[in-house]
Amino acid sequence: MIKTVKTTPYTDQKMGTAGLRKKSKLVEQENYVENFVQSIFDAIGGVKGQTFILGGDGRYYNKIAIQKIMKMSAANGMKKMIVGQNGFISTPTSSKVLLKNHADGGFVLTASHNPGGKNGDFGIKYAVASGGQCPTSLSDKIFENSKKITEYKILEAPDVDLSNLGTQKLGDMEIEVIEPVQEYVEMMESIFDFPAIKKLFANGFTMAFDAMNAVTGPYALKIFEEILGAPKGSVWNYVPMEDFGGLHPDPNLIYAKKLVDFMYSDKAADFGGANDGDGDRNMILGKKFFVTPSDSLAILTDNYKYIPAYKNGIYGVAKSAATSTAVGRVAEALNIGYYEVPTGWKYFCNLMDSNRITFCGEESFGTGSSHIREKDGIWAILFWLNIIAATGKSVEEITMEHWKKYGRSYYMRNDYDGIDIEVANKLMADLEAKLPSLKGKTFGAYTVLEAKPFIYNDPVDGSSTKNGLIVYFTDKSRIVFRLSGTGTNGATLRVYLERYETEKFKEDPEKMLESLADVSREIAEIPERTGKVKADVLT
Ligand code: G16
């Protein structure tokens, strides 16, 4: 029976950089998920006759939210839902399944790299028919709806069993339970040279992959160990857990510490990699060597010809403004299109749909291509393995050669976490106001060339977005300031530091960027305003 339930609005259901992300405890409030989902359905004119994809990264509340969403979809007249077995699907797989089935939309239940569990975070990413997350114009409309919602529709029915593959009915809606790993494997086999990578492992190459007790564990086991023949035990933490076993599933030098320590030890494998909660982020390590996401994007782009799916040419490449300029030099050398967009994968989608770019990436450990409309963690790792198999070179050799050819952008992100939201907003507003006056000023060894907000004018839909403030220096160094759109604890100020070198390649990035970090604190008055004399997290 379809029930119409009276509800009262929540005022905080505004999507951030990638969907709605909140503390699990907030999401558990009465009607919280229901209000949000109905606000989406209403914003798109209903879902009658439509097909959606549904799944999550398995974190706490996944099981409950998924049942609510299926029952609401059935009550709202949806024709079909394609759901990952046991409620699991990675973000990249969801995008792939959405595109393959020409579906109208999709939900991935995840707070991505944020910790999970009852005291952790939960979230909902909402994708549209193009396979990417919904544009800001639509999320604004959804937010408006969520502030005035009075009722939602839900089917009264027992919970759906998602353990068996195949189709079943929920009211009048068809539910198809699919096996997402196989879907993903087929896509990767169509892009990369699996036989070459298989040969690499057969010749004794070793890898360590940390799935961080999150969604890509089964994918990695299947691809790296079973299909490609990486030694048994190469994939770590491969059983997805509701609280990620207490891990913070963010693949970076801080939160993937066990892997990083191993890769910097004398027992290190030839290659190290990790993914995040929902499988769209990646980290790349060689023996005692770390590749920044910005460099990784530049290196992959420069080596596209080794990959079967791209060897005939690529359209162009894009990065978020906060990401280092390394890939820009590659784009110039290859004479391909080059775009800078605001932070948020959704901004790449129009560029892909219009064949302006093939690759894109962000400093936040995201890299991907037009094979889907989300970033893709395992894809990035396979890309590296394919290059290594084709060239016979190590991660370090490939990266060193790249720096020798193009120079090196020393790059780091400094995060100041848990700042009072009003303090953070005022800091950014005051900084923006003083940008024009910075031009020509000298801070230690750095002289400001130009300072301005980053404004993106989308060449496809004509929309304009302001995201972050950039200070350019005369020696090609840059500082980008912006507030995170994914945090759930006060505000996080992100400060991105970049310094370009054409000769010194083997220095410690933290040392190389120390004085620029001081300049960033001085320009934005960070200690005075936040009480923080140092960043909380350096990546
Ligand atoms: C999301 C977005 C990315 C963004 C990242 C960090 O990633 O999809 O585009 O770079 O958040 O955003 P912010 O700096 O605003 O916190 P994910 O992996 O969390 O979905």
Shape estimate = globular
CATH evolutionary superfamily of the largest domain: Alpha-D-Glucose-1,6-Bisphosphate, subunit A, domain 3
Percent of residues in β-strands: 25-35%
Specify the number of helices.
Answer: 18
From the alpha carbons, calculate the radius of gyration and give it in angstroms: 23 Å
Report mean pLDDT, rounded to a whole number.
Answer: 97
Number of strands: 25
Largest sheet: 7 strands, mixed
CATH-level-2 architecture of the largest domain: 3-Layer(aba) Sandwich
The hetero compounds bound to this protein are:
1,6-di-O-phosphono-alpha-D-glucopyranose
Uncertain segments are: none
Instruction: Kindly report how far apart the N and C termini lie.
Output: 51 Å
Helical fraction equals 25-40%
CATH topology of the largest domain: Alpha-D-Glucose-1,6-Bisphosphate, Chain A, domain 3
Adjacency order of strands in the biggest sheet: 2-6-5-3-4-9-8
* CATH class identity of the largest domain: Alpha Beta
Q: How many domains, as an integer?
A: 3
